[in-house]
Amino acid sequence: MKGGGRRGGGEYGRGGRDDGDGDRMMSQFAQIPTSFGHELRACLRCRLVKTYDQFRESGCENCPFLEMDKEHDNVANCTTPNFTGIISVTDPSRSWAARWLRIGRFIPGCYTLAVSEELPEEYQTVCADNNVQYVPPKR
């Protein structure tokens, strides 16, 4: 592995559990999908995977500013049923796969490996207004 061991400095060496906030990262988990059928959707910003009903009821735990739990049209606009693969992550800050997928700063949960659609422009503006980075999918 380049650069030595698994832990240490750099962007991902900030430590989820031992940074003075107690179990800050581990105290909150995203809902796990209640079924794995055609009703699954992925958030277009963070790629969290849940059912449509779960997004409608509790929104996206990583993207509360998209207000999916308040405005039902936001679920349809900010999520997609078109995605590739699912990965479950219990400790994103220590998972090499989560870092590789750029989800290492999100809360534990189920994520897709890739989405092919972009977040609509008006919601990209909402991200910018909330000082939250949006990275469009690679084409």
UniProtKB/TrEMBL annotation:
Its main location: nucleus. Residues 1-13 have a biased composition (Gly residues). InterPro entries: RPABC4/Spt4, Spt4, Spt4/RpoE2_Znf, Spt4_sf. It comes from Rhynchospora breviuscula. The keyword Transcription applies. This is Spt4/RpoE2 zinc finger domain-containing protein. Pfam families: Spt4. Belongs to the SPT4 family. GO terms for cellular component: DSIF complex. The keyword Transcription applies. One of its GO terms (biological process) is regulation of DNA-templated transcription.
